[in-house]
Amino acid sequence: NAGVMQNPRHLVRRRGQEARLRCSPMKGHSHVYWYRQLPEEGLKFMVYLQKENIIDESGMPKERFSAEFPKEGPSILRIQQVVRGDSAAYFCASSPDALWADTQYFGPGTRLTVL
Amino acid sequence: DQQVKQNSPSLSVQEGRISILNCDYTNSMFDYFLWYKKYPAEGPTFLISISSIKDKNEDGRFTVFLNKSAKHLSLHIVPSQPGDSAVYFCAASVNQGGKLIFGQGTELSVKP
Questions:
Q1: Residue B70 dihedral angles phi and psi, to the nearest 5°
Q2: What is the full DSSP assignment across B84-107?
Q3: Which of A97, B6, B35, B85 is 20 to 30 A off residue B105, Cα-Cα?
Q4: How far apart are CA A102 and CA B7, in angstroms?
């Protein structure tokens, strides 16, 4: 029973490039959450998605960031025109259904470095 | 606006003794609280949770206490083991749904 999978584990981009981070939830989980952890800080909520729907994007920066969770395939967090301040660890979490929405299980994270 | 605060960035405890990690919150609407453990270069691992209708929840060596009037929760680990050395995050949510608000974390070091 595989856990939450994220890839790539490490991603290096130059300023102005695009970063695409992928998350495959645990089997049977239909809720996906993205969090960002900046150095020396806690995790900050970014976005909450169900299949094909964005439920809560209150933590997403207004520009350059987007997320999707299509009917088929992994959830994607996309960062356009990356800047040095985007360097962080990005974690994806999943949960089974609305009744257990708070027990979120996390993936290993993608560490983004912007040069 | 830090709604969930862990004021101790680090804690050192001797093996076999009790570890007490603390967490304070400001939002009285929070009704569900969780503790996660995190090793370097890994994702957070769920440890234990508590609903606001309870004041205590226990799971093996881990016990979480909730004091709603003080807006304070704590995680007790007893006995502490060297493998418990990690960063511990408390987190909270409103209406038991959706986003989690995390504290800054406390790094626990359990010395043999």
A1: -95, -5
A2: G-EEEEEEEEETT-S--EE---EE
A3: A97
A4: 24
Do β-strands B62-67 and A19-24 pair in parallel, antiparallel, or remain unpaired? unpaired
Best residue in A99, A102, A104 for a mutation probing chain B (most B CBs within 10 Å): A102
Other CB atoms within a 10 A radius of the CB of residue B2 amount to 13
What tens digit of pLDDT does each residue of A36-57 get? 998 878 899 999 999 889 999 9
A109 to chain B, closest Cα gap in Å: 6
**Token pair 């495959």 in the structure block, residue:** A24
Q: Are A109 and A9 in contact (CB under 8 A)?
A: yes
Which of the residues in chain B have pLDDT under 50? none
Distance from CA of B27 to the nearest CA of A (A): 16
Residue B70, SS3? Answer: coil
